[in-house]
Every structure is written in structure tokens, then in C-alpha cells.
Amino acid sequence: EFTASRKRLPKCSKKCALFVCVLVLLPSVLAPLLLLRNRFAQVEEVIVFLVQNDISTEINLRTSKSPQNKAAKWIANTDSPRVTPSMHNGFLERYVLAVLYFA
């Protein structure tokens, strides 16, 4: 007759298993947060540039449904050429056209 015996994992194995689970799950939790932080930083860079150069007012840029806000978010996060204020080449033209599009 066969009787199954249960083996208990040593405490070290339980801790190791927990550690492995944390290592596996941590990137899946942190990656979206880092991406969100990066997107926020990109939008902030665009807003600061536009305000410092008197292109748009900060109030318009920070009002969530305004054409200026939508254009700043679009050019920072979605625009495929990834034109940034530091490039200057075509940034203002793309921003102005985006504002008109969202108006």
C-alpha cells in the first residue's frame, strides 16, 4: 500500500519562492508607472518651452480640455516624428497645426 508523504519546504525555499515572485511581478508593476512618469515629463517639457517663449499661456496649456493642452499632450506623447522643443525643427509649426486641429 502506498501512502503519500508530504514534504515540507524549508523556510529558505519559501523565502526564495517569494523573492522570485517579487522579481517576476515587480517589472510588470513598475514599467507602467515609469512610462507614465516619462510621459508626464515630456508634456511638462513642452509646456515649459511654450510658456517661456510666450507661445501659449500656462492657463491654456494646463486646462485639460483646451486645444493648447490637447496639442501639447499630442506632440509630447503621440506625434510620430517625436519632435521635441529642444529640436526646434518643425516643433512650433507642428504645435500650431495641432492647436488648430483640436480647436
What would you note in describing this structure?
This protein is an all-alpha fold and 103 residues long. Helix content is 68%, strand content 0%. The chain contains four helices and no strands. Helix 1 packs across helix 3 and helix 3 packs across helix 4. It starts with 10 loop residues before the first helix and ends with a helix. The mean pLDDT is 78.
Q: Layout of helices and strands, plus pairs?
A:
Blueprint: H1 11-52, H2 58-62, H3 67-77, H4 91-102
Helix pairs in contact: 1-3, 3-4
Through-space gap between termini: 81 Å
SS-based class: mainly alpha
Mean pLDDT: 78
Beta-strand proportion:
under 5%
Largest sheet: none
User: How much helical structure, as a percent, in the residues?
Assistant: 55-70%
Element string (H = helix, E = strand) = HHHH
H/I helix tally? 4
Tell me the Rg in angstroms: 25 Å
Shape: elongated
Stretches where pLDDT falls below 50 for ≥5 residues?
none
Count the strands?
Answer: 0
Write a short abstract of this structure:
With 103 residues, the protein is mainly α. The protein has helices spanning 11-52, 58-62, 67-77, 91-102.
List the keywords.
103 residues, elongated, mainly alpha
